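# step 3/5: fold
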Amino acid sequence: MSAINEQFVFPIDINDHRRANLYRHALSFLEVYAIKYVKFDRVNCCRQEEVIAITMGQIPIWDSKVDPDQLEFPFTVVGPTEFTSADIPGLPIMFPVPIFQLGADEFIKGSVILERGNAATHARWKAVSTVAIAEKDEGYELTIGTVGVLTPDEIRARIEEGIQPALKQEPVAKFFTLSRPRL
């Protein structure tokens, strides 16, 4: 199980900085599940639905536990209680995330809907929190901070799987030094 911002080091046996940077860039394209929609059926509480939905949209989903045939998760929570992600039955989470405090006689009924995507399209699908790249004697290493949607081993495996076709290609980036005419 992974925790928020658990850091791990991922060595890369490549001595070309452009290709090493490709590994870092690949993290933006890891596809994971996240809450895309929150549907409210009945709400009787002082918190606005938009605020609740924004908070719920930031819950890290345990990607490898998601059943692609079950992407909608209904919930009903009655106060007084602290409403957390653990109150959404069947939602695949690594750890409970507080959403907000329901007071006496307050309730909320609705459902969350998951969708698969990547961080290049929206931050809700971000699989990592931080990335640092460092040059070493034997190549490079990435230091990656997790957000709890994938374990370090899952991140490493998905990067390796997705990056192999790109590594077989010759880098196309060319850098030019532009000279300014003297006046």
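# step 4/5: annotate
The longest strand covers residues 32-44.
# step 5/5: archive (pending)
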